[in-house]
Amino acid sequence: MGILHNLRVTLEMIKWEHSIFALPFALCGAMLAANGLPAPRQLLWIVVAMVAARSAAMAFNRLADAAIDAENPRTQTRALPAGTLSPAFVGTFVTVSSAIFVLAAWQLNRLTLWLSPVALGVVLAYSYTKRFTRWSHLVLGFALGIAPAAAWIAVRGALDPRILLLTAAVTFWVGGFDVLYACQDYEFDSEAGLHSIPRYVGIQAALWIARGFHGVMLLLLVALVLAFGLGKIALAGVLVVGALLLYEHSLVSHTDLSKLNAAFFTMNGVISVVFFAFTAADVLLHR
């Protein structure tokens, strides 16, 4: 019963349901690689790899930041600083999740297996970047951005440079969102000596940088549509994503960050699902 309780608390801690953030973009990479639907076996192991990698990364982040979270009033109620989970249990969860990720990579092809330690290194190393660089937001973005390229490799067994446009788009999408998120910790980061864009430029300028990141994301998505010869449906998906991002940014200002809540985060899951739906429809209708 104790293990099941700890597992439930761990899943709540890492917000495993938010795996949907990057998963649709990974599935986009898989469908573009297959020029349609990948084999069911490939889809299964891609999903397993994605969920396992994100679970390992989030749990490791909570482990690495436990002392910092204990000092930050916004995060003091998280499982590790609150004492509802032990570091040993969370460390075991990271190890098991990482092993499942490597297993999934092994089931896909030789190149994914060889690259699996590199992917794990990227997603785990992010947790320490806020200690020395203000650009940790883009490192987090890249950690999720490698998902579509990894999915392409999972299907093709090789890398096509065109899919790196989607990697870059996801990097700037997540990076922009993380800049918004970091605005909540502006004062704490300054006092604790942690690095973030808001800490160095202030909240108002940081909001403009986040908007700029998302503008770059949209340009990269248009480039992706053109590079793969996709049609009007995929382009319409980019326009819808742009409209959703405009709405998101309209919810926050440098004087009011109160709407940076769970519903705001859920909107990012909606954005990734919307782009996947439009891109998948375009690929399936025009293959």
Helices and strands, with pairings:
Elements lengths: L1 H13 L8 H12 L5 H25 L1 H6 L7 H4 L4 H22 L1 H20 L6 H21 L7 H19 L3 H7 L4 H5 L1 H25 L4 H19 L11 H25 L1
Helix pairs in contact: 1-3, 2-3, 2-8, 2-14, 3-6, 3-7, 3-8, 6-7, 7-8, 8-9, 9-12, 12-13, 13-14
Description:
The structure is a single chain. With 287 residues, this protein is mainly alpha-helical. The protein has a single domain (2-286), classed as UbiA prenyltransferase (Tetracycline Repressor, domain 2, Orthogonal Bundle), CATH 1.10.357. 78% of the residues lie in helices and 0% in strands. The chain contains 14 helices and no strands. The longest helix has 25 residues, at 40-64. It is globular and about 55 Å long. It starts with a helix and ends with a helix.
